[in-house]
Amino acid sequence: MYIEEISIINFKNLKDVQVEFSPRLNCLIGNNGSGKTNLMDAVYYLSFCKSFFNAADQLNINHDESFFMLNGNYRRDDSAEIISCGLQKGQKKQFKRNSKVYKRLMEHIGLLPLVMITPSDNSLILGGSDERRKFMDGVISQYNQNYLDDLLKYNRALLQRNNLLKQFASEHYFDAELLSIWDDQLVEYGTRIHDERKKFVEKLIPVFQEFYSFISQENEKVGLVHYSALYENNFANLLQQSLKKDRIAQHTTVGIHKDDLVFNIDEYPIKKLGSQGQNKTYLVSLKLAQYEFIKEISGMKPILLLDDIFDKLDRHRVEQIVKVVSDENFGQIFITDTNREHLDTIIKKMNADYRIFNVNSGIIEPLP
Ligand SMILES: Nc1ncnc2c1ncn2[C@@H]1O[C@H](COP(=O)(O)OP(=O)(O)OP(=O)(O)O)[C@@H](O)[C@H]1O
């Protein structure tokens, strides 16, 4: 599966762009702030119906304009797919597959599998546990639509339960039966979500460790642990046990909304001790394991977006990563860099069909 061509109007600083891509390797070169990441984000948008960076959709519209449009021509299972998206200021976005508007955007997720590795993945290590839950949820919902549905329902029930706990406290009364309506829902959806996360992490760990050990040439050993109270007891019991605490706190203190992933390097938390290069190696290995996982489940080679991936890594680690992605296991790849030499080395090593594009102030031109 790959994107053959994209046209972009008014998406961030890309005002009028039309580019044909190589099915294998696409290199984007340009100075800082020229629009390389924005192009990748447009490709990301067409897979996920949202930007990797801007939670608020309107921020993706060029500052001087009132709408943006994206159109991507894809090859998938040997047939053509045309995916387009338009967003007008103050209105709901429209997402279309082969001219037919999606009723629910969720239906589109997973059609065009994609993995993006960017410097902002650092928040997975340095940020709060919500970042790591988002990582798990993002991957699982790419191949399991029921999961996303369960997650939405869980969050709705959680909000209702928390509102009720607040109401009980402010009005000085308590109704166990009323609360149990939300408990039952949390248990139903939460247990299913827990099982899916458990399966996902169990499969991810060995693949991730193999990538890390290959890229670092076995310099360090890494670990990854899924933390969830649901490993200790069933969810219904946990809610019962924490009821007193929840009433005092006026919110639900136990559940899959408290899950975390603990990242270790040589048995120490990477958050505290990892060097910048080790952190980067950890993140790249994690995302490559995600790639393998999605590839296996979807039966397609996802598009791989590598944004500024080689920064902070020594020459050996860069070489190892290039070796990994040159493999036939990988399909279409996009790489950004400010340095032409880096890209030339990669192109030489990969020995595959490629295109290079120069990006300058939002204008994208193929280079010979
Ligand atoms: N809504 C918007 N309207 C106009 N310009 C925008 C908008 N959002 C972002 N930009 C501009 O896009 C540019 C950033 O582009 P991008 O992140 O693609 O850079 P880059 O080429 O990847 O740079 P680097 O090498 O530093 O990573 C900035 O100049 C920013 O002002």
TrEMBL record:
Any matching Pfam family: SMC_N
Q: PROSITE patterns per the record?
A: RECF_1 (PS00617), RECF_2 (PS00618)
Tell me if Cytoplasm is a UniProt keyword of this record. yes
Record domain RecF/RecN/SMC N-terminal: where: 2-363
Q: Name one GO cellular component term.
A: cytoplasm
Q: Cross-referenced SUPFAM superfamilies, in alphabetical order? A: P-loop containing nucleoside triphosphate hydrolases
Q: Would the keyword Lyase turn up in this protein's UniProt record?
A: no
Please tell me where this protein is predominantly located: cytoplasm
Q: Which domain of life is it from?
A: Bacteria
Instruction: Give an example GO molecular function.
Output: ATP binding
What subcellular locations does the record give? Cytoplasm
Signal peptide region: none
A GO term (biological process) for this protein?
DNA synthesis involved in DNA repair
* Residues given in the record as ATP binding sites: G30, N31, N32, G33, S34, G35, K36, T37
What InterPro entries is this protein classified in? DNA-binding_RecF (IPR001238), DNA-binding_RecF_CS (IPR018078), P-loop_NTPase (IPR027417), RecF/RecN/SMC_N (IPR003395), RecF_2 (IPR042174)
Q: What NCBIfam families has UniProt attached to this entry?
A: recf (TIGR00611)
Family affiliation: Belongs to the RecF family.
Q: What does this protein do?
A: The RecF protein is involved in DNA metabolism; it is required for DNA replication and normal SOS inducibility. RecF binds preferentially to single-stranded, linear DNA. It also seems to bind ATP.
**What's the protein called, per UniProt?**
DNA replication and repair protein RecF
